[in-house]
Amino acid sequence: MTPLEEADPVTPRPARSSSESAPRTIEPAPAAKPAKAPPAPRRAASRGVRPAPALAAADRGRLLAGGHHDPHALLGAHPVRGGVAFRALRPYAQAVTVLGKGLRAELHDDGDGLFSGVLPLRDIPDYTLLVTYEDTEIEVQDPYRFLPSLGDLDLHLIGEGRHEELWTALGARPMAHQGVTGTRFTVWAPNAQGVRVTGDFTYWDGTAHPMRSLGSTGVWELFLPGVGDGALYKFDIMRPDGSHTVRADPMARRTEVPPANASIVTESHHVWRDADWMARRAERPVHEAPFSVYEVHLASWRPRLTYRQLADQLPAYVKDLGFTHVEFLPVAEHPFGGSWGYQVTGFYAPTSRMGTPDDFRFLIDALHEAGIGVLVDWVPAHFPKDDWALAEFDGRTLYEHEDPARAEHPDWGTLEFDYGRKEVRNFLVANATYWCEEFHVDGLRVDAVASMLYLDYSREHGEWTPNEHGGRENLDAVAFLQEMNATVYRRCPGVVTVAEESTAWDGVTRPTDHGGLGFGLKWNMGWMHDSLGYVQHEPVHRKYHHSEMTFSMVYAYSENYVLPISHDEVVHGKRALVSKMPGDWWQQRATHRAYLGFMWAHPGKQLLFMGQEFAQGAEWSEGHGPDWWLLDPSYSAESDHRGVRDLVRDLNAVYAAEPSLWERDTDPSGFTWVAGDAAEDNVFAFLRHDAAGTPLLSVSNFSPVVRAEYRLGVPESVGTWGEVLNTDELRYGGSGVGNPDPLKPEPVPSHGRPVSLCLTLPPLGTVWLRGV
C-alpha cells in the first residue's frame, strides 16, 4: 500500500470494534499526549508561509464541536488575496506540511488540532498532507480538497423520494473520485446540526472528519481517500439540541456480528452464475406454476453453519424433497436472535452471523443452480428502538411517525414507519428492489401487512385517529404498498411479492392499476386456522366442525393464495404439526400425513416450515433448530419420521408433474366438489382440473376407520382411474390400505354424476387418483 492509499489518519494499530469502547470516547494515536489543553500556537517552519486569516469564533466553535454544515468552506485549500490558504484539522498532530510538485510548506499550528497558512501560489495545486505525530509521519490525501461526490440527479431524486437505486447514492461506497480511491460516505439526517464520520480508521474519534450538508435534501457527504472495503464506521450526529449521538448507517450493506453494531464498508466481488435462471424465471406467471415452499430459519436449520456451508447442504436437501422454493425468515441484520429477524436494524445488510454479503450471494447462486427459487421475509412494518439505529435517528422523529400514537407499535415494543414521508417511503421501496437486484432473490414475503393497513390495529377506541375520510385505513401505508409492488414488478421480472395479511382486506392481490395493493400472492391465514382447528379435534367430534375444512372454498378465488404451515404455528405452546393431532403416535402421524395430502391438493400454493417435513414432535426453537437426530438410523423410531419425509418428497413430485394441481389455482373452473358434505364420514372429496380439463380426484378420510366400497361420482371422460398417491402406504408408516388396482367407473349415479367409483378409503388417509 502506498502512502497515499493509507487510511486517514492512521498509525500502525489493530482495528477495533465500535463496541469495544464507549461511543464518544476519543482515542488518540499511540504516541499522542493527553489533551489537557490546546497546544500553544507555534510558527511554521517553512519560509514563505504567511498566517491565514483566523476563523470566526462561531465557525471555529461549530467546526470543533461537530456542528458545522459546511466544513469544506473552512478546511482544505482556497484562493485568497495574495495566494492560496490551506487549513487542516488534525487532532493530536504535532505538525502538518503541505506537499506538492516542488512544494513543501509547514503550516502554522493554530491550536485545537487546526493548522493553517497562506502560500504565495497563483492556483490550487495537487497536494497531499504530511501529518507528523510524536513518533511517526503519515502522508495522506486531504478529504477537503474534493468536490462533492454525489451528483445533482441523485440529489434531485432523493429530494423527490423517487430514487429507486437509493443504495447507490446513500451509505458507504468505495469509489475513485477525482482520480483518488477511497469511500464516499453519505447519510440522510435533515435535522442534524452537523455529522461526522467516525470509525476504526479514526480510532473512533470523528473530530477530523466532519461532513458537509448538500442543501435542502438533508443529505450529508464526505469522501475519505484511502478508506476501503472492510473499514468499520458510524456517523457521529449533533442533534438539534447540541448533544451527540453515534449511529450505525441506515444504508449499511454490511455490519459487524451482533452484539457489535458498527457498519462496514463493503463492495461485492461475487460473479453470478445464474444468468439462465434469471432469464427463465419470468416465463410463466407464478399463480399458474407449481409453487411449493420450504420455510427456513437459516441460523438454526443446521446451527453454526456459514452461508457457504449452507450452500453445500441446503440446495441438495431441498431439491431432493422436490420443493420449488425456499423462504428464509428475515435475513436482514437484527440485534436480537430471538426475534428470528423480525426486528430489523440493518435493512440493507444480510446478517453477518453467517458470513459476508458475498457469502449470502453464493448461497442464493447455489440454490438457483439447483433449480430452487429464493424468497426472503421482508419487514417494512416496524423497527426496534435501539439507540444506535433508526429511532429518532438525527435527534427528532425521522423514520418513525411524528405522532407518538402512530409511531408506537402496541404489540411488539417497536416503532412504525412514517409511510407518509416521501424519503421514508423511498428508503423502503428501494430496499425491496435492493434485495431483488443485488441478491437475485425471487420473491419477498411481506410481514405483518395487516398491522400496516389499519390505523386501529391492536388499538382501543380513543387510541387512534381516523383518516381524512373518517375511516380506519392507513392511506399512507396503502400508497406505500402499491408503490412498492408496482416498482418491484416493473424492475424485476419474475419476482413475486407475497403478503402476510390476516384480514378480509379487498384486493390484496389485485393489480395496482385496478385499485388493489398489487401483491402476487397472499397467505391464506383463514384456511390455516380453520383446517388446523379441524384436525386438532378428536375424530368423533370432527363432524361438528366439518365446515371448517370446506369454508375456504367460499373465498378461495377472491385472492391468489398460499396455504402456510409456517414457523408461527409450531412455537410458543402451539405445538409442532404432528403434536397437534389427537390420538396415539400412529394416529398422530397418520393424521399428519392425511393433512399434508389434503393441503397439497387444495387450491393454492403450499408452504411448510422446516422440521414438519419429518414430523418433528417438539416445538421449534431458534436455539437448536430441527431435531435431525430423529432421522438417525440408530434411533428406534427413525422409520416413522423418514416415512413422513418420503411422503413429502412424493407429494412434491406428483404435484409438480400434475398441472391439475396448480395450473388453475386462481380459476374456479379448476376445482369441483364431489363430496363436500360428508360430515358424518369425516370425508372430503374434490376434483382438480388443469387448463385442458384433465381431472385429478383427491379424497381425504379423517376418521380412524377403513371405509370400504365408498362410492363417489366421477366424470365420464375418464375410463380408468388409478392411485397416484396414498398417504397410508406402508413405506410412509401407514397401514397399507388402498386401491392398488386400476378402477373403472360403474354406471351407478352418485353425487350428481351418472357414473361413480367404488373406493376403499384408508383410515386417516388421503388418496389421489387420476386417469390411467
TrEMBL record:
GO molecular function per UniProt: 1,4-alpha-glucan branching enzyme activity
Record's keyword annotation contains Transferase: yes
Ranges for domain Glycosyl hydrolase family 13 catalytic: 295-649
Active site residues of this protein: 447, 500
Segments of this protein annotated with the region Disordered: 1-52
InterPro entries to which the protein is assigned, alphabetical: A-amylase/branching_C, Branching_enzy, GH, GH13_cat_dom, GlgB, GlgB_N, GlgB_N_E_set_prok, Glyco_hydro_13_N
Top-rank taxon: Bacteria
Pathways involved: Glycan biosynthesis; glycogen biosynthesis
Substrates-to-products reaction catalysed: Transfers a segment of a (1->4)-alpha-D-glucan chain to a primary hydroxy group in a similar glucan chain
The protein's enzyme class: transferase
Extent of Low complexity compositional bias: 13-35, 42-52
Keyword tags: Carbohydrate metabolism, Glycogen biosynthesis, Glycogen metabolism, Glycosyltransferase, Transferase
SMART domains: Aamy (SM00642)
Pfam families in the record: Alpha-amylase (PF00128), Alpha-amylase_C (PF02806), CBM_48 (PF02922), GlgB_N (PF22019)
EC number, as in UniProt: 2.4.1.18
Subunit comment: Monomer.
Summary of the function given for this chain in its UniProt record: Catalyzes the formation of the alpha-1,6-glucosidic linkages in glycogen by scission of a 1,4-alpha-linked oligosaccharide from growing alpha-1,4-glucan chains and the subsequent attachment of the oligosaccharide to the alpha-1,6 position.
HAMAP family, A to Z: GlgB
Family of this protein: Belongs to the glycosyl hydrolase 13 family. GlgB subfamily.
Protein name: 1,4-alpha-glucan branching enzyme GlgB
Organism annotation: Streptomyces mauvecolor
Gene of this entry: glgB
